[in-house]
Design brief:
The protein is of the alpha/beta class. It has 2 domains: about 220 residues, Thiolase/Chalcone synthase (Peroxisomal Thiolase, Chain A, domain 1), CATH 3.40.47; about 140 residues, Peroxisomal Thiolase, Chain A, domain 1 (3-Layer(aba) Sandwich). Helix 10 links the parallel strand 10 and strand 11. The longest helix is centred in the first third of the chain and has 17 residues. It starts with a strand and ends with a strand. The model has no long low-confidence stretch (mean pLDDT about 95).
């Protein structure tokens, strides 16, 4: 088995900012992307307005749909930040790959292709759109664009998808089955996903893509790269007992609850608060009142398959700055969880990221500020 799994770069595009610096500045300023949607009348969304992937990706993106473009932009940022861009090489690295989490994938492309076939007949469908009609199309398209010849997998596990993707990639690296992997998630807002949110009516829908560049500390240091974050522990227990998910992640990291410096909540709306609060109190007890909490989805919305990865990047920034971002918007709805509308100082090296789904898919990730 290889060494410790670390993060050496990140790529992120969301409704509050594109790029790690812009995303971080917006988080710490208390930005909140929710607003009445121009694309989906009658719905408040946290959508990426005037998204133009060409400024990052250049030409050759005509066949890529919105999900694929979002993911390819995040991949471009992460690869460039890690010094692993393959734009100038003829063939890509067979040990450089991508693991992506998503709930719906390219659902709009799938629906549009099927609807054309049903209403106009199979001879009228556009064959150029067919490659986008599978859930792993964004990961495949991003890999083609960036010449990623290694592992290419898509994980679909509800709102826990991108945390599962990070864990899956970390395991590949620990067992020496890849040299470096992009890992995270993507989700687009479309007519189909907006309809699902409209019927639910509880959360503000968001979209975006977030990827970490993961490698082992040995590989990073051999390349002259300083790690940023270490991936330490992961937990996943399907069902109602989210507390066991957190316990599993802490045990995997080999730490106690009191060593957690901050928690990025899974909660996106009032209806989700009681279940997460109960789980955290079961694990942390009275210590929860002394642990800074942040509901990151209040800033960028419920981005489903991308939410866990977006929150993980926020947790990494918090550890780096030893300062927790504020929770944007009204805080009264979060009781009994106590959150702050201003940045909070934190003390410690570990952060917990939760991703609990109403479908029973639960995941928790423990990360640590890198130290030799």
């Amino acid at each position: 088995m290889s060494g410790r799994v670390v993060v050496t770069a990140a790529g992120v595009i969301s409704a509050i900012g594109a790029g790690l610096e812009s995303f971080g500045c917006a988080l710490y300023s208390g930005a909140r992307a929710a607003r009445p949607s121009a694309r989906f009348p009658g719905l408040s969304t946290a959508e990426i307005v005037d998204f133009n992937a060409q400024q990052w990706l250049g030409k050759g993106i005509r066949a890529m749909d919105r999900s694929a473009r979002l993911l390819a932009v995040a991949a471009h940022m992460a690869l460039d930040g890690a010094g692993l861009s393959q734009e100038t090489v003829d063939t890509g690295d067979p040990e450089l790959g991508l693991v992506c989490g998503s709930v719906y994938g390219s659902v709009h492309s799938i629906a549009a292709f099927d609807w054309t076939g049903i209403t106009e007949g199979p001879t009228y469908v556009n064959p150029m759109e067919f490659p986008n009609t599978v859930i792993n199309a964004p990961a495949g398209q991003a890999a083609i664009k960036h010449k990623l010849r290694g592992v290419n997998s898509t994980v679909c596990a509800g709102t826990a998808s991108s945390l599962h993707a990070i864990h899956y990639a970390a395991e590949f690296l620990r067992f020496g089955r890849a040299r470096a992997l992009l890992a995270g998630g993507v989700e687009e807002l479309s007519e189909e996903s907006a309809l699902a949110f409209r019927q639910d009516g509880a959360c503000v829908p968001g979209e975006g893509a977030a990827l970490w560049l993961l490698e082992t500390d040995d590989t990073a240091q051999a390349r002259g790269r300083s790690p940023w974050i270490e991936v330490c522990g992961f937990g996943s227990v399907h069902g109602d007992n989210a507390a066991d998910t957190v316990r599993q992640a802490l045990a995997d990291a080999g730490i106690q609850p009191e060593q957690i410096a901050c928690i990025m909540l899974s909660t996106a709306c009032r209806s989700q608060v009681p279940a997460e609060a109960q789980a955290l109190y079961q694990v942390f007890g009275d210590g929860l009142s002394r642990t800074p909490l942040c509901a990151t989805k209040a800033a960028f919305g419920e981005a489903l398959g991308a939410s866990g990865a977006l929150s993980a990047i926020a947790a990494g920034l918090a550890l780096q700055q030893q300062m927790l971002p504020p929770t944007a918007g009204p805080l009264d709805d979060m009781a009994p969880l106590v959150l702050s509308g201003a940045p909070l100082p934190i003390a410690g090296d570990y952060a917990l990221i939760n991703a609990f789904g109403s479908d029973g898919n639960n995941a928790a990730l423990v990360i640590r500020l890198w130290k030799n």
